[in-house]
Amino acid sequence: MFESITGLIEQGGYFGILALMFLENLFPPIPSEVIMPLAGFLAARGELNLFGVVVAGTLGSFLGALPWYYAGARLGEERMRRLAARHGRWLTLSGDDVLEAGVWFRAHGRKAVFFGRLVPAIRTLISVPAGIAQMPFASFAFYTLAGSAIWTFVLTLAGYLLHAEYDRVADYLDPGSNIVLGTIVAIYLYRLLRNGRRAGERQR
């Protein structure tokens, strides 16, 4: 698994990193906690530029936040909650998730967007209430880019600094990554079934 993911990043280069980070914000096939450290490994090996890796990861993360921001802005909280309750299970997003993110955003204001990008559990969701609240796009873009850049840089640097232990880490990460990805799939399926049951109960 370790080699397959690094091979995917190697083949795609900076655009591959951007695309993976974009998808990670919509539907996480591979989490950023795996993507960026492995990209950092490749930068340490001289196959990619460290600055380019961070820029590509940050831009991909930012672009992935935009659909959620515009969805919130166009639909509003009530319609977004209804949409999430009906179809959000495919993205493991529920109406309650939208409500909780909105409460968090209203409690912390614009800084919620910045700090939210540093918290795995709400990295994606925080864009929804920002759109619902009609947060000016310039402010949203600034705080999203700033938070995403820090998150991306820290993960990339971790992989870069571990380069000296590349072979040892690869031995541990290869089976470990299988466990991580398996766990992610299991959680996704659990939330898919849970949200599906909730939607069914509401329709009764």
From TrEMBL:
GO CC field: plasma membrane
Cell membrane recorded as keyword: yes
Keywords: Cell membrane, Membrane, Transmembrane, Transmembrane helix
Membrane protein topology class: Multi-pass membrane protein
Domain of life: Bacteria
Places the protein is found: Cell membrane
Keyword rRNA processing: no
Domain VTT: 30-160
Transmembrane residue ranges: 12-30, 50-71, 140-163, 175-193
InterPro entries, alphabetized: DedA_domain, VTT_dom
Protein's name according to its UniProt entry: Alkaline phosphatase
Species of origin: Stutzerimonas balearica DSM 6083
Lineage, uppermost ranks: Bacteria, Pseudomonadati, Pseudomonadota, Gammaproteobacteria, Pseudomonadales
